[in-house]
Specification:
This protein is α+β, with helices and mostly antiparallel strands. The chain contains one helix and three strands, in the order αβββ.
Length: about 110
């Protein structure tokens, strides 16, 4: 009876450890995507507001590609970045995160 309890305890520990090993990478990937999405959205918003106020290219954010399209009365900015979700055996699984922002042109632009 005691031996069976010991074996059951060992099985529970092994199964619990296996579950943790499978769940932690999923949580890490989700956190990376959420962080990258927030960074890309902030970069797009900042660039759109900069162009709408100053009418010239904003300073380039680090590691994020930003493209600006000026239209009549508005500015549209598309920002994107590649985020590495997980690396397995020398290969990386990545995803492109993209954000689009459109803001109206400010009537109170700075004139340099």
């Amino acid at each position: 009876m005691i031996r069976e309890r010991g074996i059951a305890l060992i099985e529970m520990i092994v199964v619990g450890f296996a579950v943790v090993l499978m769940v932690l990478p999923v949580i890490a990937m989700t956190a990376r995507v959420v962080d990258a999405t927030a960074s890309v959205h902030a970069a797009a918003r900042d660039a759109a507001v900069w162009v709408a106020r100053h009418d010239h290219q904003p300073p380039a954010p680090e590691g994020i590609s930003v493209s600006v399209v000026r239209r009549q009365g508005s500015v549209r900015v598309v920002a994107s970045d590649d985020v590495v979700l997980i690396g397995v055996g020398g290969t990386n699984i990545s995803r492109t995160v993209r954000s689009e922002i459109e803001v109206p042109v400010s009537p109170f632009r700075s004139n340099p």
